[in-house]
């Protein structure tokens, strides 16, 4: 489409809207992954995590035609995101139980952010690619506009998590819900989910409750292990 034409601006507005609507998931992943870092590394992780997430989505958008042909992509991405959601709850518990760091290093946090965003980004990439009508300059501009929003949102979520640790469970629940949405949207499973509302609802409940329950049990066991290993007063 013609550069700076009404159609170009209309498509850009649609792309920005898509990015901003889905920015909440990005902010949650980045904030939860960075929460275990030393304070002087948290801002760095938020900034570079956002850059990495945007770069990943740009590359995925370039290959969107190929991605559309991959059978089972949404299913694999959804299952991977379930694991990421659990791991965002488990690091502190596993660290206490086994004595080793999980995501309390800068590169560990970066890896979690980029992998999770790649898994979550399928819906975003397909939506943005459709709104851009093949104009990659629109995709890049829209993503660049969304960067400060994601950075700001991540900073806010991180402050809230530090003050109210229970928010971590809300964030993990949101990611589990996103995973269920991806699995339900998998074309290979249309025959299972499309005609059956009960099956769709059951999957949402199963994944959200399962992730939160598994994270809570891991934390409880780790706490018990730490108490049993501590010397008696």
Structure notes:
With about 230 residues, the protein is mainly α. It is built from 10 helices and no strands. About 85% of the residues lie in helices and about 0% in strands. Helix 1 packs antiparallel against helix 6 (about 105-130) and helix 1 packs parallel to helix 7 (about 135-165). The longest helix is centred in the last third of the chain and has 33 residues, at about 195-230. The N and C termini lie far apart (about 75 Å). Mean pLDDT is about 75; it is low at about 90-100.
Low-confidence stretches: 92-102
H/E element string?
A: HHHHHHHHHH
Mean pLDDT: 75
Number of strands: 0
Q: Distance N terminus to C terminus?
A: 74 Å
- Contiguous helical run count: 10
Helix vs. strand class: mainly alpha
- CA radius of gyration is 19 Å
Provide the helix percentage.
over 70%
The proportion of residues in beta strands is under 5%
Shape: globular
Largest sheet: none
Subcellular location: Membrane
Family: Belongs to the TerC family.
Protein name: TerC family protein
InterPro entries: Integral_membrane_TerC, Integral_membrane_YjbE
Any chance you could write out the topology, listing elements then pairs?
Layout: H1 6-34, H2 39-62, H3 64-68, H4 73-89, H5 91-98, H6 106-132, H7 136-163, H8 167-184, H9 190-193, H10 197-229
Helix pairs in contact: 1-2, 1-6, 1-7, 1-8, 2-6, 2-7, 4-6, 4-8, 4-10, 5-10, 8-10
């Amino acid at each position: 489409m013609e550069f700076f034409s009404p159609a170009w601006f209309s498509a850009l507005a649609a792309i920005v809207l898509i990015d901003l609507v889905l920015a909440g998931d990005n902010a949650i992943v980045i904030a939860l992954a960075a929460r275990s870092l030393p304070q002087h590394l948290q801002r760095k992780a938020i900034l570079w995590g956002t850059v990495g997430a945007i770069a990943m989505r740009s590359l995925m958008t370039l290959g969107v035609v190929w991605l559309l042909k991959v059978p089972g992509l949404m299913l694999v991405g959804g299952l991977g995101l379930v694991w990421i959601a659990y791991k965002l709850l488990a690091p502190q518990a596993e660290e206490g139980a086994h004595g080793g760091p999980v995501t309390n290093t800068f590169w560990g946090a970066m890896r979690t952010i980029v992998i999770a965003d790649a898994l979550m980004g399928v819906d975003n990439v397909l939506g943005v690619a459709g709104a851009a009508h093949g104009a990659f300059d629109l995709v890049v501009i829209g993503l660049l506009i969304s960067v400060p929003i994601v950075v700001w949102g991540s900073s806010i979520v991180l402050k809230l998590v530090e003050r109210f640790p229970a928010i971590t469970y809300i964030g993990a629940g949101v990611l589990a819900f996103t995973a269920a949405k991806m699995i339900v949207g998998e074309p290979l499973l249309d025959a299972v989910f499309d005609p059956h509302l009960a099956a769709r609802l059951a999957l949402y409940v199963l994944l959200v409750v399962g992730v939160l329950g598994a994270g809570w049990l891991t934390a409880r066991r780790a706490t018990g292990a730490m108490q049993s290993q501590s010397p008696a007063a």
